[in-house]
Each structure stands twice: as structure tokens, then as C-alpha cells.
Amino acid sequence: MMAPTSSTTALAQLRKLEIILAHAGTENPAGDAREILAAVMSCQPNLLRLKYETILSSEQLDRSVSMAKRRASGEPIQYVLGMWSFMGRDYKVGQGVLIPRDDTEVLVGEALRMIRSVPRPRIVDLCSGSGIIAITLAKELDATVYAVEKSGEAFAYLKENITLNQADVKAIRADIKDCVVDFGDCSLDMIVSNPPYIRSNDIADLQNEVQYEPRLALDGGESGYDFYELIIRLWTPKLKDGGTIAFELGEGQFDYVANLLKAAGYTNIIGYPDIQGITRAVTAEYGERLTKNG
Ligand code: GLN
């Protein structure tokens, strides 16, 4: 017997999903409806228009409605889709791992620019999450890249994303405080990190979608600076002379982090703006030699 079919077209279903999302007051009902339907039809959202006449199966109808309902209840679209892209590559995401953000392109772009001239660099990405930073660096460079992640849930996504992207990244499930001893002094060309940087008390005020994201990936302690302080203190000895550190920053955090870096012996401390003009990343170079020679 043939599987039951419907007579509902993609276009009709798109309108239905839009209504579900609009009634719930979601920010971008038309865009989210397209993303959901495209995912269910395994096509690119920008090709959906070519498939408006396609008759959907009842499975596709049901699945798209249940995804729209999840989105309507406030879950981020990225988790509903289970997949999100960053700098041209796809990553699996879901509750338990921070969603890749375009903000992080600033950090990755500058890190790449700083390290390109170093032959076969050794790089560590701390608080790696879904692995977007480590994986992009590994794919763009001939490098040895380590990715450190403490959360078991996030680590599962990290491993899956390494495989999905066929990236040569060594994933380490550990607390950054513990695994630092496994790295030799003066052994790294670059330390890169998008650490948790939101002040603990500010998390509740962030938009509804962010409340679905793991607190562990957001909470930077009372001041927001816990991880910058920890990483600079514990990991700086692991950098080679002339090595680079590169951090993503929260809004307004540049001056404080720049001072931490300066006090720890870093020079050439530079901040980089995102498209909104917020200083979103900082890079600095480490070296006794550099400091002494001015
Ligand atoms: N950019 C994230 C936010 O503003 C925070 C990510 C982080 O703490 N590293 O929600």
C-alpha cells in the first residue's frame, strides 16, 4: 500500500507555519518559516521558491508544524533546526551548546590574520563549545589545533562537528584549570578563546532565546572577567616567545582585559570592532624579549 499523501503544497504549508509563528509573536515569522520548511524539505532556504508547488508528505507536514511550535514557544531557531552555519561551514547545535554567532567572525578573522605567517602553528582553543573557532582555524591553516571543552553535552557537539567538517582538531574534555599542566611551557603559538563573559547578575536580563543556552557558556562570574583572568594567569606560560593570545570580548570589556594583558607582559594589544562598532575581539603578543626591547 502507498504511504498516505496529502495534497498540501509547500507554499500552503509555508503560509501555515508563518501564521503559527506570527500568532506567537516571534520576531521574524516569515524568515523562520522558510528556514523550517527548507530544513524539512532538505533544500536551501533560498531555493524554496522553486519548490512552492511540491506536494509534501504527511511526515513533512507534521514535522514542520512541530518545529514551528517549538520556535513559537521561544526556543531559538538554531536549536529547532539543529544546525547552524559559521563562516561558510555547517555545525550541529542544540540545547547544551552555545549557538554560533556572527560576532565571533571578528575573533576568528583576526586570529587567522595573525597566525597565517607562522609555519605549522600549534594553537589551543579554550572553552571551545561547538568548536567553530578550532574547526575554522584547522580548516584554514596547516596547524595543530587543540580544542578544550568542559561540558559533556557541548563536548558531544564538538566531536560531532569535528567529524562533520573532517577537521584535524584534537578535542580534550577537561576543565581549562586542569588540562593546562598537559601542555609544555613555551609550546604554543596561539591561545584563542571566546570564554563566558556575561556578568552573572545580567544573565536573567538577556533576551528570552538566550535563556535556552547553557549558563556555563555565558556566565563570566560576578565581574564577567573570571575567564580572562584565569586564562591569562594559567595559560600565558604556555605561549612561545612572540606567541599570540586572542579573545572575544563582551561590550565594554576591552579596557579591563587590555590592562590584564599589559600587566601580564603582553604588548601590541589591539581591539577590533564588530559591525555595530563594539570592540568585539582583542589580540596581543607575548614575549620577555619583546617587552624588554620596548
Ligand atoms: N555573545 C553571547 C551573548 O551575548 C555571549 C557569549 C559568551 O559569553 N562568550 O549572549
Based on secondary structure, the structural category is alpha/beta
> Beta-sheet strand percentage?
15-25%
The radius of gyration over CA amounts to 22 Å
Q: H/E order of the elements?
A: EHHEHHEEHEHEHEHEHEHEEH
What is the makeup of the main sheet? 7 strands, mixed
Label the overall shape: elongated
Distance between the termini: 81 Å
Arrangement of strands in the largest sheet = 7-6-5-8-9-11-10
Rounded average pLDDT:
95
Given the structure, what is the number of helices? 11
Counting DSSP E segments of at least 2 residues, the number of strands comes to: 11
- The helix fraction, in percent, is 25-40%
* pLDDT < 50 runs, ≥5 residues: 290-294
Q: List all distinct small molecules, including ions and cofactors, that are bound in this structure.
A: glutamine
Quaternary structure type: single chain
Topology summary:
Elements: E1 5-9, H1 10-23, H2 29-40, E2 55-57, H3 58-72, H4 77-81, E3 83-86, E4 89-92, H5 104-115, E5 122-126, H6 132-140, E6 144-149, H7 152-164, E7 169-173, H8 176-179, E8 188-193, H9 226-235, E9 239-248, H10 254-263, E10 266-273, E11 279-286, H11 288-292
Parallel strand pairs: 5-6, 5-8, 6-7, 8-9
Antiparallel strand pairs: 1-2, 3-4, 9-11, 10-11
Helix pairs in contact: 1-2, 1-3, 2-3, 5-6
The protein binds glutamine.
Describe this structure in words.
This protein is α/β, with parallel strands linked by helices and 294 residues long. 37% of the residues lie in helices and 22% in strands. The protein contains eleven helices and eleven strands. α1 (10-23) packs across α2 (29-40) and α2 (29-40) packs antiparallel against α3 (58-72). The longest helix is centred in the first third of the chain and has 15 residues, at 58-72. It is elongated, with a radius of gyration of 22 Å. It starts with a strand and ends with a helix. The model is unreliable at 290-294 (pLDDT under 50). The structure holds glutamine (GLN). The site of glutamine (GLN) has 10 residues, from loops. Glutamine (GLN) binds next to loops.
